């Protein structure tokens, strides 16, 4: 059983919470060389009075959802196919589940821990094929005897995949040079091919006019996310702009003037463009 502490400032109602040690989980590496990660935290049960509890459980579920083609959905009477990619269960109260245990008023904590292997896909949501997704969720339940209302809590778990710290993608630069005929020459340089979480994205742009009267007035940069979804009906790509920024060129320097808010989704990072 987890540790219990008294609390003189009780909430108005008894309730259940799931508190994670980290806001998201990261799987680092590609192919078979993926480092495992840990899902950990605790279930917190807040009771305003002594309460009979039969069992306290926690479920971790991962599901992949792919919409079905219209022709198949009519036959199967379903609009999507759902696959369970992982599942794990915890039970925190020891003893016979047929008998209740009385827990005193206060806060009761039940820690949990699970090793996450490197084979799980990352959390994702896309509009491709009408809305495909991979989602993970924790669900806690405190079961009370008789007709008493059970206490429940749900929290999403975000899994992110990335390169290892030593990956070459973090060290290799990317440079593109081209010419706009009779207008100007330009180059775009990225100091890295990949960026780690928390980094500030930087792109260096250089312009060289080759005709009189040609100048750069503004630059619009956007960060796009492309998702490819595979289903029985075939593969489909979906691209969305997650954020964008407009820079005005003043005295040869770029100054951000308009920033487009990002679309709803997992935590994103700032994007900065430097014009020269």
From TrEMBL:
InterPro entries: Arrestin-like_C, Arrestin-like_N, Arrestin_domain-protein, Ig_E-set. Gene3D superfamilies: 2.60.40.640. Residues 256-276 are annotated as: Disordered. Residues 39-150 form the Arrestin-like N-terminal domain. GO terms for cellular component: cytosol; plasma membrane. One of its GO terms (molecular function) is ubiquitin protein ligase binding. It comes from the Eukaryota. Coiled coil: none annotated. GO terms for biological process: ubiquitin-dependent endocytosis. Pfam families: Arrestin_N. PANTHER family: ARRESTIN DOMAIN CONTAINING PROTEIN (PTHR11188), FI21816P1 (PTHR11188:SF17). This is Arrestin-like N-terminal domain-containing protein. It comes from Pholiota conissans. The lineage of its organism: Eukaryota, Fungi, Dikarya, Basidiomycota, Agaricomycotina.
């Amino acid at each position: 059983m987890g540790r219990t502490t008294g609390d003189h400032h009780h909430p108005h109602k008894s309730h259940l919470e799931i508190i994670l040690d980290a806001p998201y989980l990261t799987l680092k590496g590609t192919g078979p060389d993926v480092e495992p990660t840990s899902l950990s935290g605790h279930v917190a049960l807040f009771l305003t009075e002594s309460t009979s509890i039969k069992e306290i459980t926690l479920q971790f579920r991962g599901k992949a959802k792919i919409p079905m083609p219209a022709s198949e959905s009519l036959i199967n009477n379903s609009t999507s196919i759902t696959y369970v990619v992982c599942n794990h269960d915890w039970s925190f109260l020891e003893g016979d589940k047929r008998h209740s245990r009385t827990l005193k008023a206060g806060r009761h904590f039940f820690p949990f821990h699970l090793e996450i292997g490197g084979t799980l896909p990352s959390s994702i949501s896309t509009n491709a094929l009408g809305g495909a997704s991979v989602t993970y969720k924790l669900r806690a339940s405190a079961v009370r005897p008789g007709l008493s209302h059970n206490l429940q809590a749900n929290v999403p778990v975000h899994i992110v995949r990335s390169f290892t710290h030593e990956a070459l993608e973090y060290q290799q630069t990317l440079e593109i040079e081209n010419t706009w005929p009779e207008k100007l020459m330009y180059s775009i340089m990225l100091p890295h091919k990949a960026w780690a979480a928390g980094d500030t994205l930087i792109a260096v742009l250089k312009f060289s006019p080759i005709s009189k009267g040609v100048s750069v007035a503004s630059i619009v940069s956007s960060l796009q996310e492309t998702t490819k979804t595979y289903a029985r009906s075939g593969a489909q790509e979906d691209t969305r702009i997650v954020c964008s920024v407009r820079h005005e060129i003043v005295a040869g320097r770029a100054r951000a003037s308009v920033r487009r808010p990002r679309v709803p989704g997992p935590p994103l990072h700032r994007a900065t463009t430097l014009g020269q």
